[in-house]
Amino acid sequence: MTFDRLAARARALPPLAADLLVAAVVGVFTAADAAVNDPGYRQADALTWALLVVSLAALVRRRRWPVPVACVTGAACAGWALYGHIGELLNLPVIVALYTVAVLGDRRRTLWTAVVASLASGAVALVVGRDVVNPQGLPVLEMVWPLVPLLLGEVVRTRRELLAEYAARAVRAEEDREREAARRVREERARVAREVHDILAHTVSAMTVQAGVALDALDTAPEVSRRAMTQVRASGKEAVRELRATLSVLREAESTAPAPRLDQLDELVAGVEAGGVRVSLRRDTGGAGVPAVVEAIAYRIVQEALTNVVRHSAATHAAVSVTRTGPRLSVEVVDDGPPVPPPPDPPGAGAADQGFGLIGMRERAVSVGGSVTYGPDPGGGFRVHAELPAELPAELPPELPAELPAEGGTP
């Protein structure tokens, strides 16, 4: 079993059990040193063992009263020295106590303890004499050893405080990410709500005008009334189709703004180029009209793809292509950045797993029966490709929802 596993098991012990274990280990080494004193010096007797018992009993309560325990063990260590005992491990109980003072306290208490312990150790060395307590050198050396456990405890405590601060920062960062995700969801709701308003406002207004014409001509010009009502029916079908397609990603209503069209791609490209990325734009719809909802979705896909290029890649150039081939409108954005793997897409993954940008692209495309693919381009960089219908069918594909999905769901 490795040392790390032993340390982990020791940390998992209850505090009292851990303190008893520490006292037992310290007692074994200290008793062994006290029992075998150098010849010519006082040998262990009842007072020696009494001081040892007091020290070990104090160590059991070291977490609750670290400073008093340090005083008790220090007094016992001084008593051994004054009584005539010498040994390398007789100060082990006070070493553990001083370490506890530092690791469970603060820097100010550690400094005061260091001063008192050093002075006390030096004073004992002067009283007893260098031949007994410090056979290797001057009493000043006896003033240094209490600083070692205090310094070690200070280092351990500082590291724990840093780890706690890092953990708190991680929690705050996670909260910030959640707030950012909620903000992006709100922005997406607002954008879709604006698109709903601007896509449908013109259609509903035209239906109202045509209905008024039909009512006025109902008795005097039935043919005019019939044509007007036919137009109302066609406009109504188109409005319902666009409404269902757009509401598939709607969450809540907000203010209005002009719906984006393919003609605005020049302005979008200019804004991206102002950020330092060159963009080449190819736009060819063959002179044929494209439904407004498809234009808006194509614009949003290009916008999100270019935003990802600016934010998440080191690309210097991006190529945007919007072309119509028969009944399909192809939208493609390719950059020349370094290879980047596509985000994970496990079964059942949601927005929290992939991010809202690519999810938004997919939802928009699927809402009109299209599709989006993305990933590293064989020639380098990243590629986003969308296939959208250039002509919406009379009815939406059967896999599209007829009602608004539940909060947080995807179509």
Question: Would you mind describing this structure in some detail?
Answer:
The longest helix is centred in the middle third of the chain and has 71 residues, at 147-217. The protein is an alpha+beta fold and 411 residues long. α3 (46-60) runs antiparallel to α4, α5 (92-103) runs parallel beside α7 and α10 packs antiparallel against α12 (356-367). The protein has 12 helices and 5 strands. Helix content is 59%, strand content 9%. The chain has a 5-stranded mixed beta sheet with strand order 1-2-3-5-4, with helices on one face.
Short account of what is shown:
This protein is α+β, with helices and mostly antiparallel strands. It has 12 helices and 5 strands. It starts with a helix and ends in a 22-residue tail after the last strand.
Beta-strand content: 5-15%
- What class would the helix/strand composition place it in? alpha+beta
Radius of gyration: 40 Å
What's the SSE pattern?
Answer: HHHHHHHHHEHEEHHEE
Question: How are the strands of the largest sheet arranged?
Answer: 1-2-3-5-4
Shape: rod-shaped
- Could you give a short account of the major beta sheet? 5 strands, mixed
Please mark out the parts with pLDDT under 50 across 5 or more consecutive residues, or reply none. Answer: 132-137, 251-257, 345-355, 394-411
Strand element count = 5
Distance between the termini: 53 Å
The percentage helix is 55-70%
Determine the number of helices (DSSP H or I, runs of at least 4 residues): 12
On the 0 to 100 scale, the average pLDDT is 76
